[in-house]
Design goal:
four-stranded antiparallel beta sheet, Immunoglobulin-like, 2 helices, about 35% strand, about 130 residues
């Protein structure tokens, strides 16, 4: 004959297993967050801030175009190069070394090299 009486031990077992799984998931999530934060902080522990005119000039960091619209650019400490280019303007740039935890500002106002570019620059809002 089949016994329909609930077994109080089986509900305690389910609760115990559920609790263990929940704690395990929370611990794994905390470890992942710590690893991601540690990796990000150690990889990019220096910052660059750019003020570039004309504002549509291209900024190259170590030869690669970068987006400066967010205000700060996170980089690894060490030696880097920066170049600012735009058609009709003399390019500018420099090589630099940045230390861990340092924030460095770059302020560039490109000079036009033709009368046509100069006229465009005069009418351009910075």
């Amino acid at each position: 004959m089949y016994n329909n009486t609930p077994n109080p031990n089986s509900s305690k077992k389910r609760y115990f297993v559920f609790s263990i799984i929940t704690v395990f998931i929370i611990i794994v999530a905390i470890i992942i967050i710590i690893l991601l934060k540690t990796n990000h902080d150690s990889t990019y522990s220096a910052k660059l801030r750019f003020f570039v005119r004309p504002s549509d000039a291209t900024v190259l960091l170590d030869g690669e175009p970068i987006d400066i619209s967010s205000g700060l650019v996170h980089v690894t400490p060490g030696d880097h190069s920066v170049a600012i280019i735009r058609a009709g303007f003399f390019p500018e740039g420099e090589e630099f070394t940045i230390k861990e935890g340092e924030t460095r500002d770059f302020d560039y106002a490109l000079s036009p090299f033709s009368e046509e570019a100069k006229k465009l620059a005069e009418n351009f809002e910075y």
